[in-house]
Write a structure and sequence with these properties.
three-stranded antiparallel beta sheet; 2 domains; mainly alpha; flat
Length: 255
């Protein structure tokens, strides 16, 4: 059924798609409501783990020209560099945010806020100055505190993953997870080990997303990746209620 979900989402945009109806029916079924893990769906094929004869074939000048592999590589590099630039900008921002947060804790800042009649918590500071929720703000601050050697090691491993044809989780979240693994590895291995066993996560493509924003209620958001793992912060009843509304709309469109 999960394979039907992927096809329905990628090829059928109409409300009456049988694949979408099947998807909703599955999630609304007792098995779906019990939160059982869905079947694993194979990820798209990539040019990795090639046999020697396959590598030789793709290295042939005629084949490379016919498939336009040079242009494909150039465009892929452009996309990759775009993500690198975005990540680098985030790191630069984290250093600035860290300094701002440090000043927020000084007596100078407290006195100025008192004069102006302002009383901010850290959550207020994050939201009012940067427009962020506290959880994301703390992630940015943590990134700003990281040693440059950890960041460099993270970027190096990301480059290695990209070179192998996969997509690394070159994000703030990915960096912090890597830094934690480095720290834990260093503690276990002792001084000088520097968490050599830490690895960077590889992104798993998302094949289905479902969101619902009820008036006066909690938003419902569900994401299923290519490994068949469903991620959500909602309970099954909230998801079921949202799907009932979707099923009702599908039934209306069929009439």
């Amino acid at each position: 059924m999960l394979r039907a979900i992927a096809v329905g989402v990628s090829k059928h945009h109409g409300a009456q798609s049988p694949a979408v109806v099947g998807c909703v029916a599955y999630l609304m079924s007792p098995k779906g409501r019990n939160g059982k893990q869905l079947k694993t769906l194979k990820t798209p094929i990539k040019m990795t783990n090639l046999l020697s004869i396959e590598s030789a074939f793709l290295s042939n000048s005629e084949v490379k020209q016919a498939l336009n592999l040079t242009e494909i590589k150039r465009l892929s590099t452009t996309l990759s560099n775009g993500q690198k630039k975005k990540f680098a900008t985030t790191l630069t921002l984290s250093a600035v945010v860290l300094k701002a947060f440090e000043w927020f804790g000084t007596e100078e800042c407290k006195q100025l806020m008192t004069i102006e009649g302002i009383s901010w918590t850290t959550e207020d500071f994050a939201n009012k100055v940067f427009g962020w929720q506290k959880s994301y703000f703390y992630k940015v601050v943590k990134a700003g505190k990281l040693d440059t050697s950890v960041v460099d090691k993270f970027n190096t491993k990301c480059d290695e993953i990209e070179a192998s044809g996969e997509e690394p989780n070159r994000t703030l979240e990915g960096l912090l997870k890597f830094a934690k693994a480095v720290e834990e590895g260093t503690e276990e291995g002792g001084e000088g080990e520097e968490g050599e066993g830490a690895e960077v996560e590889v992104k798993v493509p998302t094949i289905l997303t479902f969101t619902f924003k009820p008036e006066g209620g909690k938003n419902v958001a569900v994401r299923i990746d290519a490994n068949g793992v469903m991620k959500t912060t909602n309970d099954n009843n909230q998801i079921f209620d949202a799907l009932q509304i979707l099923m009702g709309k599908l039934a209306e469109n069929q009439n």
